[in-house]
Fold these 2 entries.
Entry 1:
Amino acid sequence: MTDTESALRGRSPSFAAATAAVAVFAYEAWFFNAAGKSGAALAGGLAWAGFCAAIFAIIAIGGKPDPARRVFFFTAALAFVPSFIAHLVETRGRMVLTAAEIAASQVPFCHIAITTSIVPAALLHTLDFPAQLSGIRAAFYPMLGYWLLSLATIGRGWCSWVCFYGGLEDGISGLPRRARMDIGASGPTLRRVNKAILGFVVLAGMATLVPVYCDWLCPFKLVTEYYEPSSIRGYLALIAFMGIFLALVVVLPLLTKKRTQCSVLCPFGATQSLLGRLSPFSVAVDTDDCVSCGACDRACPMLAMNPETRAKGRPESSCVKCGTCFGACRKGAIGYELRLGKRAGRRVAPVSGKGQAGWGRAFLDAVLSPALLFPFTALSFGMIISSGFSAETMTRIAKLVATGSFLVGAGR
Amino acid sequence: MKAQGTRSVIATAARVLPLCAAIGVPFFFVYSTWIAARLEKALRLEVEPSFTGGRLLAEFPNPIGGDTGQGGYTYPLGQGWEKGELNLVRYAVRAPVPRPVWGFSGAYWQLEASFAKAMPTGLAGGGFRAPVLHVYIQIRESGAGGSTESAFGEGELLRFDPDHPWDYALSADGWSPAGEIRSADGSYRAPVPTMWDFARRRLILRIRLENAPRLLASVIGGASTWHYVLVGAYDPAREGHFAAVRRGAGLHDGGGAKDDLSPRVFDLIAPKGTSKSAELSSEDPASGNYALVSPVMAGGPAAAGPSPALRGRAAEAAAKEAAAAEAARSRALAALPPRSPADSGVIGELFELGLEDRCLEAIKADIAARPGDPVALAYRGAILAQRADRAAGLGEKMRLVAEAYRDLDAAVAGSAAAARGGPHGRPLLPRKRVERRAERRFRPGRPGGRRFRRRRGHGGRGEGPGLRERLPRPGRGRLREGRSHGRRGVAMGDLGGDRRTLRRRQARADRQGIRDGGLRRANAELDASTDRGTMVPYRVEGGRRHEDKG
């Protein structure tokens, strides 16, 4: 018996399972962030890897995703924005998209554009977005792969663990202590609007071969890149995306504590909701323990919880599996579950393992429990996707402190 | 028991699935490049062409290391020029984009020039070190109204092919973000947005076609155009911005010129069959004539072919090649051992040498000596098939093919009888299959089919040699009672090109009311207008069809 086993045997199986998972995650974080790097890049990578590993340790051992998940998610989004903008400034000298970049297909492909691009791509073999098809991570084929993988693993969990746009909104919606505006009753209507917008952008994209959402509706152009406003049309688009950003990403989340852009406008989120059943993980409510206090309804940032869904034992398809409701439920009646496993309405055990036949079996059960595996999978996804930009931001911050310059490239 | 087994399977899957998901994510990212490459292979997408500049119409690769002008040009000594920066390695003409979908408000036409080495990023730090690109474009095939002189004074020190006078001259450089286009008569001048794509080392020029003169806008649709593409070193002090090239290189001047009239062009796109250095060395200092250059053709069937001025030379070269081939053939013929003309070995050798007439003579002699010789018949069939391939008219082609088949059929039959399943015993392409294909290809509704049938003297019904007899089937291609679109669709499908006529007559018949007389008249009219031969009129009564033999 090794020392590690002896040490583990002194603990509960669930703790041992969580510790083992944290060790694996820490290795993974090192591999994707710091391996093969040197100097300042290594320092930045290690900083980000350590941060991600710490977040996972808190989630795995504590048994509840929030608030550690929200800290990770918001930080990753905040780290993405300056790094991305700095990249644009270094390579182009400014944030705006130029005709040359469009002509050379050098516009980064964003996962939200998949929803409008996938149908023309399937029918016409044409990508209606001026992005590279392969090569860098922000090209079409890698992004398509990520999307398919997310469907098969975390489903709409992408929106609360991976999406760097959603992270901004999630963080902003978590800032106020209480909601000043209650839009809980509008949940069904907003979900329908979300699906209608998805239908509209897909059909309009097919009809015009233009990424309609990216052209007119995407609020995140304000923090990424946008087409140079040189005509009336350009100025209208600028006003549209600035207005949508302020309204749906800043003001309404602050007033309602809900992720309004994600639940109303985002076509990618709507697609994930529709195809979310492909994911083996879901959130379930134990109807036996639920006392219908409505705390989860108020806590859910996506308006996915309501009396009906509680009675069914499963939230609406718009659920992003963020786990905010787990902490809000005083009875601990909400948790992750496997679709193939227990049926809704039955007790959903978080990292348990006690009372099993043997220690080894209990350890294995704890390792394979969705309460541990879902955060592992989702955070791995988020950590790997954010690894490039976030680690780089850490490096840039170190450089800013040392040299007074945030830029590292040609635009410095 | 069975339910228990199912539950066990589900329970195992429920355990394995999340583990696969957890392990799968990091593994996926490790191999994401490989997976993306497989996805690329499977899906084969392309980016919407209006983003990238339109579909590629013509592409002219140019050799690396060809930036030596007359053959020995050297770069200017100042500003840190690097070899390859004036080396044009590819010129591409894209189809004009009439309605761009994103970011551009009007129609445009994109031309691209790729260089072996890209300029320094941001156009800064290189001083005036940049290539200058002149593209002269001929749009009118007639050449009327064009110019054969440089658009920029002495400019490049060149003359342009008199058979291809240019209509528009385009000047751009790697220095400024806007080039200029001007017409030959000087009546039109407009800026041309110029963009560097550093990743692909190409200079992109977008000619705006909105509000452009009609002649320039006429390129929409992919009409053939001729392009002179010239590259020089940038010198803002000179007209046309082409740096001078002297015998010895200077701070701003290139070196390696043969004489004072040597062109200032380091690289150009030369048409196939011509030599770049020969074109640039064609100046005549004695008479004061500049070097004469030829354009390349974009669009049209003869893209990238030589200009008419060079066609003579190309034809000469082709004639030489043909003469050499003929001489080789004669030599081979002379080397044949003396044998009887009827020897089938001789027939084969003559056939291989392409001496068709002599081969046919040998075949004739062979068949006279040995009637029905399958080898000789097979060779004759092959020769007839080759002649059919070269024949001009469709009717002539079909006649020769039919004769070829007659010979080949006879050869196969003779061979089968002689060898009983020997190597010639079974045709590789059964004749009936070919006939069926031919019939399908030339049926009345197909393009070309009607003309072919008319050329055969009649509707072509059964008269085409080798074609299966086509008998009219009652009820097909006829007007019918009622307005069922499905049924009418079938009838129209049979008639092919006569859809509109049929539709009109059907409407008239419907208006008149479906009576025996009306329907018969309409059908008679229809028969007269469509080459379908005699058919049996019929009427529909009580949901049943009655053929009217009278």
Entry 2:
Amino acid sequence: MTAAASSSQPADSAPLDPIAATALEEVQFLGRQHRDALRSPDFTKPDLARFDERMAAYIDVLVVRGSPVIEWLLTKLHTAETAADACGIGVVLLESRDPRAADGLLATVAAAEQEPLVHGLQAALRRGPLERVLPRLREWLASGTPREAASAAEALAFHRQLDKNSPRLAQLMDDVDPIVRRAAWRAAALAG
Amino acid sequence: MRVILEAIAGPHITKRIVIPGYQKGTFGRTEWADYQFPDDPLMSSQHFSIECVGTTCVVRDLGSTNGTYVNEERVAEGKVVTGSIIRAGQTSVKVTLEEGVAPSRAPVARDPAAPPPQILATELDVRPVRADPRVAQRPAPRVEAKSAPSAHQKALADTDPVVRRNALLAATWAGRRWVLDHCRSLCSPPLLENWEALLLLAILGEPADFERILSIGRAAELGPKRFQILGAYGHPEVVNDLIVGIENAEPAIAVAAARAFTKITGVDISSAAETASISNQGPQAESEPALDGAALPSAEIAAREWRKLKGKFSSGQRWLGGLEVSRGFPADSADKVDLESRFEACLRGRFQGTWQASRFDLEQLADTLAS
């Protein structure tokens, strides 16, 4: 069964066109499959590669639609309810390499309160290309709020762009906010 | 062997450090290092490491800014002997190697095909060797648990369980030797609230941990998850417990035990029967996987297959899918094994310093940390 057959379209973000809507649902569905398989005893790495090949094809379907799809995806990102939904949208936004997409994604990361959404957006920052968001992430790490800095540290660590001896990271690991501490220790782990 | 380092120059002059056998130590200015020299501004956060195998001790520079010198010769890696002087930043330390205390356990570029080093118990300062010679080839060293550095200590005592879990995984990933002792300290009694530590002990544990692992695997209060511990440890002597589990009338127990059996042996023992609309019961129900439609295992097939296989399996201490992996995980198998086993092998390799993390490994780690 495909994602399109099992999910419905939110009323507040009308699809760009039916093909785009289906492609996004498939990206989100395959992303969920990828996530569920990532440490599963029932899958191997080649199985995962097959999910990813299919996902890449659907991402292309969306990215080639150019600028109009960005507005639509940013609207949907605000209403994403699950980590997989947010991750799917986030990956497409990053793959578009559009500055508005990068800004909109980071604005959502900065505002995200619920951990599932935070995890979904972090997963997108792991899977997608970072080039458009890298300068802002570095700014966040240097001078952003603790939550911004912790999010930045996590993404930068995954892409091997974080100095594990960063004094800011040490501060974040000792922050009063447990959400920040969790993210900081994730960053510390990923930085090795 | 143990290594004694005595600072003979620098801000920490007269500081004396004793590294017991079986341990690798890192040295630097900050808490990221196992042994710290906070008042030496020219020392890097993690400056150099010392690791011993047999009677050989090797110093490695850890990418320091100002370099590591052995007898005033800059080294990326170099042997040290009694009397060697290591200089890092403003600090110079004199090395003394004391033999006959305990050998190092960490392998340094050892030929994977070579047999494990033979150790005479009479030469060691160790606890008595286990009575069961099938289980432990090496005695457990009586090594004091070097405690976690303060940042880790604070995180491991955090009120937030996710912070505690993430800090423990961070230390494991970085190969901190104290992780094993920390996990051991949390395994008796085995509690679900310490699940991450129990599982890590199974993944990282040594032959000397056999009795601890078996106790966890027999702790009925852990529910079916206890068989995950036995499967992750992979020792052939746990298989009889798994067969007993497969015989259990509760499908969730039988399926979990069968998964562990297959994980170790690589043998599928499914019967033709399937579970149907089984709802897990008990306090762990929510954390257990759904069983609807899962093939019920056959204890008869398991026992029959094990009678055929156990001779072969007695030759090793850790098995995964029928492969003997106690001396490492064959690189060409990494894409063939299931992703749970792959991540466990990766964690073990990272802890032992033998696994270079790929982007995929990091993704598995990130997912674990976010779960």
